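Progress note, sequence design subtask.
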């Protein structure tokens, strides 16, 4: 599936955002190697730091269905991923991360390009 096609699904998911505080709607769609997709939106909370970003919600939804990092191929996000989400994208080893820049153009990166030389749990 192309980045544009995945982003169109992310746009649809953004419509379900629960964002009464920022009023900033974000959607994300995880694509698996087997073709399945998991879509989600950002979910805010009155205790602001407890809100969940759309891409983390989509990954959590997939993980809760048994999906593991080796199963995922790509993710599309309607906005540039925040720093914390980049750590999640790294953990899940997405081959392609598509997101829409503020100017409307589409960016595509491998997860590691978005967080070079990132921290990993030391191997024991
Ligand atoms: N947001 C996301 O869903 N993903 C990001 O990577 C950036 C920020 C959400 C969090 C919050 O609900 C709203 O956008 C404004 O920050």
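Output:
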């Amino acid at each position: 599936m192309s980045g544009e096609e995945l982003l169109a699904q992310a746009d649809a998911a953004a419509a379900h955002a629960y964002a009464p505080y920022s009023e900033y709607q974000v959607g994300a769609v995880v694509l698996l190697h087997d073709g399945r997709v998991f879509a989600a939106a950002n979910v805010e909370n009155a205790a602001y730091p407890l809100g969940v970003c759309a891409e983390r919600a989509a990954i959590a939804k997939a993980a809760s269905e048994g999906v593991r990092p080796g199963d995922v191929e790509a993710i599309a996000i309607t906005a540039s991923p925040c720093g914390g989400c980049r750590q999640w994208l790294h953990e899940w080893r997405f081959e392609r991360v598509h997101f829409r820049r503020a100017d409307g153009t589409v960016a595509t990166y491998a997860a590691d390009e978005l967080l070079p030389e990132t921290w990993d749990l030391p191997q024991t």
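The helical segments are 3-14, 54-64, 83-91. Work on this subtask will continue into the next period as scheduled.
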